[in-house]
């Protein structure tokens, strides 16, 4: 029963004041002059005032509200170490049992660390989960919070949390844990291909561990060195980036006995390899309509350093002009093809024919350059079918096809072969999806016999038009037409000459994206995505090894000719090994070197400050203390309801505050000066005053 008195005036307060103020003044004057009947006049005034004020007795029926208590359970991956999951489950069950005895508590259990979002899996964000649990609760109803965690919380505030209630932390694990880990101190995001890259790393032990340890250094899955590192000190590291695009540098140390986990015994750095400017030597033969097509294309690429020579005056040309009056530059044959040939990434012969400009021995040097890893492109014109063809020199050993001597002058649409539809150089070429292709015609094809390598484009009468071949460690491409300039000039709408020529050049220079057989994998969020380029019809499933060593397979589905894709949702953060046939790839899922595994030793330090600031405390679940109640192998403190001003923690108990808030269910209303009772009292007071005044 909650009784209270309320007033419900019959007239407004200003009007009530105007009525009662003069009467009160008269009553007071009567008292001052001690007139007869002053007491009765004052009583009559009180009765009139009570009638006008209309006092009401209220009886409220209220229901007490419960205090809201949040139990935040850490389900992050670091909680899977050792007995922590078991301790967590037992502590949660024990707390629920204890809290269930108190009807004044509304218990909300929140699990954190199991979100699908990668950024939430890589960090333990318990205070974010706590804020969500109390989002719809007024501050006066917050009874407190209990966190069950290993203490590695990455969003812990430095001071008091945003709610005025006790915060308690129950720490899993034990205080004798040890763990050794490795991390990168300085790891650049980019590096030049083939150049040494400076990095630093550190091996960290627990309890100020000292000594040295062997560190295995791997680049893209292949071990390149073993370094000796001093524990606790920043160590220098120098690695060479092997190729363009994504490269994975991995450091690994052996686990020590009784170590918590070996997950953080590896550190990953993702480095994008960048090529220095590619050096291309372009040698043009007799001037022709498309002579500048290759030059303009290569000059427009900022990553290409072009050296271009055009043979305008061959040695056999004798016109009587004195040498000192010629403004032509002598062709530096020895410097280019003997001394500096290894410096070039690509050599292009554009309608070049043998005219004694190059000594015959130099063609042998070019063939050797290709055999040892160089790249050669032949843009063939009618000269290739003639008596002065470079196919009649020692360069023939590097060429993918020998000329028949036939030059076919016939209009045709360049088309992709069946192999060309799958080959990354020509796959998806703009305009190739229609019949006829959506580009202009060409009018000349050079006949060849016994072509080697892969014919990815065909010309008139299905003759080979573009050949791509491997010779030793190098590569050779051959365009069997000199009509590409028609696309560049926009004849009949032109064609994708820039796209095609650039792909050819990059394939010859071994760009990874244009490899026929290539396996790549990448992590996007918590998804592992796999891409397989192949010339086969079915590469089969991909085999995956997770960071924890589990094996699984993923089916690869055909996305387009020569490309198969697969994906799988993962639950682990770390380095995944992907294999298909003889190809292997590495992919890192989740943020690199995630904070979740940076330090996995359970600790009381991170939550001590915010807990003590709210009047709570931090204690371990696994301890030998006899205080408290033992439940399933963990020591749980007793739960005690406390008032807002009382202590909230002790040696063997934790306090949760109760609230005084309530909700109104019903109200009973009894007027005190209403009805016949009020009228009778008013008449009695007035009659008494009249009677006393009349005597």
Automatic annotation (TrEMBL):
Superkingdom in the source lineage: Bacteria
Xref: InterPro entries: Class_I_gatase-like
TM region(s), chain numbering: 12-32, 39-58, 672-691
Protein keywords: Membrane, Transmembrane, Transmembrane helix
Range of residues in the leader sequence: none
Keyword Transmembrane: yes
Name of the protein: Glutamine amidotransferase domain-containing protein
Gene source species: Mesorhizobium onobrychidis
């Amino acid at each position: 029963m909650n009784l209270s008195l309320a007033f419900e005036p019959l007239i407004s307060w200003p009007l009530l004041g105007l009525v009662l103020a003069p009467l009160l003044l008269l009553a007071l004057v009567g008292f001052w002059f001690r007139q007869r009947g002053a007491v009765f006049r004052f009583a009559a005034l009180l009765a009139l005032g009570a009638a006008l004020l209309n006092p009401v007795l209220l009886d409220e029926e209220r229901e007490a509200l419960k205090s809201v208590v949040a139990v935040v359970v850490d389900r992050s991956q670091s909680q899977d170490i050792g007995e922590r999951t078991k301790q967590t489950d037992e502590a949660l069950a024990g707390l629920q049992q204890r809290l269930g005895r108190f009807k004044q508590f509304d218990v909300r259990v929140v699990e954190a660390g199991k979100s699908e979002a990668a950024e939430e899996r890589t960090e333990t964000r318990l205070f974010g989960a706590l804020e969500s649990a109390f989002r719809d609760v007024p501050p006066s109803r917050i009874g407190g919070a209990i966190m069950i965690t290993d203490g590695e919380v990455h969003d812990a505030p430095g001071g008091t949390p945003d709610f005025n209630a006790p915060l308690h932390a129950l720490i899993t694990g034990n205080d004798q844990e040890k763990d050794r880990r490795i991390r990168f101190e300085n790891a650049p995001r980019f590096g030049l291909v083939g150049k040494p890259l400076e990095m630093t790393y550190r091996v960290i032990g627990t309890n100020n561990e000292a000594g040295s340890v062997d560190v295995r250094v791997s680049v893209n899955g292949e071990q390149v060195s073993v370094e000796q590192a001093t524990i606790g000190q920043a160590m220098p590291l120098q690695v060479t980036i092997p190729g363009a695009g994504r490269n994975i540098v991995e450091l690994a140390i052996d686990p020590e006995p009784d170590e918590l986990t070996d997950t953080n015994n590896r550190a990953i750095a993702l480095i994008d390899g960048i090529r220095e400017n590619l050096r291309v030597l372009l040698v043009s033969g007799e001037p022709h309509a498309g002579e500048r097509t290759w030059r303009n294309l290569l000059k427009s690429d900022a990553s290409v350093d072009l050296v271009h020579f055009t043979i305008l005056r061959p040695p056999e040309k004798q016109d009587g002009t004195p040498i000192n009056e010629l403004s032509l530059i002598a062709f530096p044959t020895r410097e280019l093809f003997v001394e500096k040939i290894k410096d070039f990434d690509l050599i292009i012969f554009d309608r070049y024919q043998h005219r004694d400009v190059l000594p015959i021995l130099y063609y042998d040097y070019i063939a050797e350059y290709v055999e040892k890893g160089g790249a050669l492109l032949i843009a063939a014109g009618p000269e290739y079918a003639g008596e002065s063809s470079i196919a009649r020199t020692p360069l023939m050993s590097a060429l993918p096809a020998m000329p028949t001597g036939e030059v076919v002058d016939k209009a045709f649409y360049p088309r992709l072969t069946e192999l060309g539809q799958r080959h990354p150089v020509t796959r998806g070429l703009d305009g190739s999806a229609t019949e006829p292709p959506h580009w202009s015609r060409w009018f000349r094809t050079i006949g060849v016999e016994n072509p080697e390598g892969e014919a990815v484009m065909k010309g008139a009468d299905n003759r080979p038009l573009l050949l791509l071949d491997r010779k030793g460690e190098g590569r050779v491409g051959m365009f069997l037409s000199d009509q590409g300039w028609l696309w560049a000039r926009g004849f009949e709408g032109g064609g994708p000459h820039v796209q095609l020529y650039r792909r050819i050049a990059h394939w010859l220079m071994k760009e990874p994206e244009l490899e026929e057989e290539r396996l790549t994998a990448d992590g996007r969020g918590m998804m592992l995505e796999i891409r397989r380029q192949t010339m086969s019809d079915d590469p089969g499933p991909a085999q995956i090894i997770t960071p924890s060593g589990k094996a699984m397979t993923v089916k690869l589905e055909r996305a387009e000719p020569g490309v198969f894709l697969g994906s799988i949702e993962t639950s682990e953060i770390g380095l995944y090994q992907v294999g298909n046939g003889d190809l292997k790839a590495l992919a890192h899922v989740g943020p690199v070197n995630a904070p979740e595994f940076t330090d996995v030793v359970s600790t009381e330090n991170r939550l001590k400050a915010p807990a003590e600031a709210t009047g709570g405390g931090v204690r371990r679940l696994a301890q030998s203390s006899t205080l408290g109640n033992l439940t399933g192998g963990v020591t749980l403190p007793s739960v005690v309801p406390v008032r807002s001003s009382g202590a909230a923690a002790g040696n063997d108990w934790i306090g949760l505050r109760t609230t005084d808030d309530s909700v109104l269910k019903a109200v009973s209303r009894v007027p005190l000066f209403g009805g016949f009772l009020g009228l009778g009292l008013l008449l009695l007071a007035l009659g008494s005053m009249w009677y006393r005044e009349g005597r």
